[in-house]
Amino acid sequence: MAHIVFVTSGIASIYNAAFELARLLEQAGHQVTYASPGDIRQAVATQGIRYVQLNNSQENAKPIQQIDANGKVRGWLEKLRTRREQQAFALKSLRSHDFAPLIKLLNPDLLIIDIELHEFVIASPLLNVPVALLSTWVSLYKRPGVPPLHLYIIPGVGWRGSKAGIEWAWLKYRLWKWLQRHQQRVRAVGADPSSVLNRYADQTGFRFQQEVDRYQWLLPFSYRSLPVLCLNALEFDFPHQPHPSVRHLGAMIHLQRKDPVPMSDQAAIHQRLESLFSSHNVEKKPLVYCAFGAFFGGDDLPFFQRMVKAAEAEPGWEFVIGLGGRWETNKLGALPPNVHAFGWVPQLRVLQHADCAVIHGGISTINECIHFGVPMLVYPFKKTTDQMGNAARVVYHGLGIAADRDTDDPQAICDHIRQLLSAPTYKTRVRAMQRQFEEYRRENRAVQAIEALIAASDTDRNA
Predict the structure, then answer these.
(1) Bridge partners (DSSP) listed for residue 246
(2) What's the structural domain count of the chain?
(3) Where in the sequence is the domain holding 309, given as residue range(s)?
(4) In what order do the strands lie in the sheet with 287-291?
(5) pLDDT digits (tens, 9 = 90+) for 281-314
(6) Residue 420 domain-assigned (yes or no)
């Protein structure tokens, strides 16, 4: 059987999805090792997976001083004068300086690298090992009928959803990317991430100009031909023919994961939730789960407060609110009896009982809602992330409702939730998508796709 090495960042949604893929591979008899530049040793250890810590060479690089002797920030001309030192520091600061020796010792048959860890992807030619890229994004590549992922555009709806509208959206986005890249290059005098990675590719032998594609969705770039393992179901996306390098493995939902609930709070939270679930099973009150992830750092407290006002207006519904560690529960003010707010909640456990979920549109949470058959009210953050595009896909497939977190008042929030709870079509559509997810697991498509990659690479090396 094969030895497969994963390299991902310390973002929980990414490594939890990768853990589920690793579990499936181990279940099929393969050996798995995990490596990361982030300190996730404890999270990996709980899975019983072998772990290798990748060092961060920034600790060894001497930074260029950006403050002069008078305490002023050095200007652009001063940066230009020291551009060689700036570029050398940026190059030395890449986290992949010990990557190749460590991975060589592991002797993997396949290396699976997070698609956003570009320095490790670019270092991979030093290894002479087959490489695949790991992506938790729904869609990265421009395909007919598929708009850029950060936009709320539904194909076939309005001018924006027309063929011309989608093409126009891509044109604007690509122009924005081009401007961003050149502005960064000028400001950083050639020490911007893209330029530094290009220089690093000269050292590793990575075919940067041939392989890097700057005009797809991912910032700063994606890759033209390296195989991409998409940890989502193709059926959740808009209908299209996938990019030739993309293999959809299905939604990776790590049911054994440990949510970051503080140990001191676990017993109390568990007791409160189990009491609520028992009451819910008896009284049959609708249970609404509300959470907006832990990754976003903006001020969404006013929206949480409007959610509490909405709950107060509907005493016949029970609300579980998870604040993702961003806010203390006392920030919500006095809570009505039907609102149960926590700094952290075990999301998977709550979704097992929820009748609908009010969420931000992160793909991991959407996949988990589908897994448990829970219709969604999506309030995406208006950032250049995937949340707006994910929300559009939820609406396109009839899995829920997308709404505006900036303008919706408590009455509008109540109206949306009432629609989800009363219209059976949402539940029906979610369950249909749930069955599509189950097909991937039942047919073991993820393991089959990875085994096919390994077999193809063995054939190429033996040819």
Answers:
(1) 228
(2) 1
(3) 263-439
(4) 339-342, 318-322, 287-291, 356-359, 376-378, 400-402
(5) 777 889 999 998 766 656 678 888 999 999 999 9
(6) yes
